[in-house]
Design goal:
This protein is α+β, with helices and mostly antiparallel strands. It has eleven helices and 14 strands. A hairpin with a 3-residue loop joins strand 10 and strand 11. The protein is globular.
Length: 495
């Protein structure tokens, strides 16, 4: 029978086998070990992998776990790690092994996570040159075009404070789902449809109506998928957790497949390397990102700028910017737990582990910490409502440039649960941008094509049109004060 593996794959596998025979690549690096073998010469960027069972039973200190996660985040992967995916797409679908080692538009498109996430340090945002072409990773054959009919070009966002963001999203999801379940019970008891307001931490997500048979009318749900699960990652609000984000990105951008997503003892991309990332590796990378420092205000050494920032903070609220860029959302608990109960299939879930990994976000593991509140809670000053909004209208439509829908509004739920047909996520809606690191996260806009904050404000139409107009109605000095306030919100100290 004819060998279905292409010449690229066969040559690559033959080369890796030769390295194995030479003793340059040996088994001990595949699992956490007390005394790992020392490899001489060519070696993978990640020489040791983390064991999930040791993590669950507390045998790995949090600091050591975070350090391993950062090594993984910063690692510049190579073919000995399993970098590249010659016989699979970025979604994991098999294909003929013709994928080049690197394709800037369709991926693999990066050597390391930190290659794009680097502003203000590892885990931050990226310049325009680090833009990602969302959904291009699924294309077969690969496209070299950046045209919008092939993908959605988006800027790399910073991950600072993302542990708090994930926990806010979880708590808000539980609130919204509880409202729907209460409406479901009431409709079943009364025999008539029940409509309830969807409020989570004071953010209005519209209304949900439940029929007596349990079907949901989602037509009045606003700014969130119909399953009512807040997905705080990706600018479209499409990814539930840091873990899902990490599993996706490792395969999409680097061609590194995780065991939990692709299975144990397998080589799904036919590159000659099996079990490229362990379950423990993904846990470590997740915890590294969850523990990144919380951004916030940094005082300028210049009194004039400090005074302007204070004035600008008040004006920011006066003109209504805080209605979407909410300065503060409160966490009921400052504890971060892993894995996320809302993780979709292909990602570790609570039922897959014996013990959850838990640590306190208010302890300031890696720098600035959250402010505690009574009862074990904390305040998150992220300047977002974690809701999708449409900032486009007939005159201002800069943020309506995407052509391809990223997923559907039904989320993870069965489309049959709803009274209307499933629909794609609106291309013109994006999550409210977190502003707590805006002072060092330029460029702006979902595509990163706006170089100043004033430009970004200028293009706020649609649901933010009144706030945008109020800003430009202010005297120039007061506009400058608002910008100064925003520039004081940073993920790093001033240089």
């Amino acid at each position: 029978m004819k060998d279905k593996k292409g010449p690229f794959v066969k040559d690559r596998q033959r080369w890796i086998r030769r390295i194995l025979c030479l003793g340059l690549l040996s088994l001990p690096w595949l699992a956490q070990a007390e005394s790992p073998a020392v490899i001489i010469g060519e070696r993978p960027a990640l020489e040791q992998h983390m064991d999930q069972e040791q993590i669950e039973y507390g045998k790995i200190q949090l600091r050591k776990l975070i350090d391993h996660g950062q090594r993984l985040f910063d690692a510049r992967f190579n073919v000995l790690d399993g970098q590249g995916r010659p016989a699979s797409t970025g979604t994991g679908a098999p294909r003929s092994p013709h994928q080049p080692a690197f394709v800037r538009t369709s991926a693999p498109d990066a050597n390391s996570c930190a290659g794009c996430h680097n502003q203000a340090g590892s885990g931050g945002g990226g310049d325009f040159v680090a833009n990602v072409f969302v959904l291009a990773q699924a294309l077969d054959p690969v496209t070299f075009s950046t045209a919008p009919e092939f993908s959605n070009e988006r800027n790399t966002l910073g991950m600072f404070g993302s542990g708090a963001i994930e926990m806010l999203a979880r708590e808000m999801s539980f609130e919204l789902i509880a409202i729907r379940e209460a409406a479901t019970a009431a409709a079943a008891t009364s025999g008539v449809p029940v409509t309830s307001q969807l409020l989570a931490k004071g953010v209005d997500f519209g209304q949900v109506t439940v029929m007596p048979d349990g079907k949901v009318d989602p037509s009045a749900i606003e700014g969130v998928d119909w399953d009512l699960i807040i997905k705080p990652f990706h600018q479209k609000g499409a990814v539930v957790s840091l873990r899902e984000f990490t599993n996706n990105a490792m395969n999409h951008h680097h061609g590194m497949q995780s065991v939990e997503r692709f299975g144990q003892g397998l080589d799904p991309d036919l590159d000659g390397v099996f079990d490229e990332l362990s379950v423990g590796d993904i846990t470590a990378a997740t915890i590294f990102q969850a523990s990144l420092a919380v951004p916030g205000p940094v005082e300028s050494p210049y009194p004039e700028r400090r005074h302007a920032a204070l004035r600008g903070e008040a004006l920011f609220e006066d003109i209504g910017c805080g209605s979407c860029h909410r300065p503060t959302l409160a966490l009921a608990s400052s504890q971060f737990s892993e894995p996320n109960p809302f993780n979709p299939p292909g990602n570790l879930r609570p039922g897959d582990v014996e013990h959850l990994l838990v640590f306190d976000l208010a302890e300031g593991v890696r720098g600035r910490n959250l402010k505690r509140t009574a009862g074990g809670g904390a305040l998150v000053h992220a300047f977002t409502d974690l809701k999708r909004h449409n900032l486009n209208d007939a005159e201002l439509d800069h943020f309506d440039n995407e052509l391809i829908a990223q997923g559907t509004l039904a989320g993870f739920a069965n489309p049959g649960d709803f009274t209307v047909a499933n629909q794609p996520r609106p291309t013109g809606e994006f999550l409210t941008r977190k502003l707590w690191d805006v002072g060092d996260s330029a460029p702006y806009g979902h595509r990163g094509d706006l170089t100043t904050l004033t430009q970004a404000i200028h293009f706020h139409g649609g649901q933010a049109r009144s706030q945008r107009d109020a800003f430009f109605d202010l005297p120039s000095g007061e506009q400058a004060a608002i910008i100064e306030f925003m520039m004081s919100l940073r993920a790093s100290p001033l240089p």
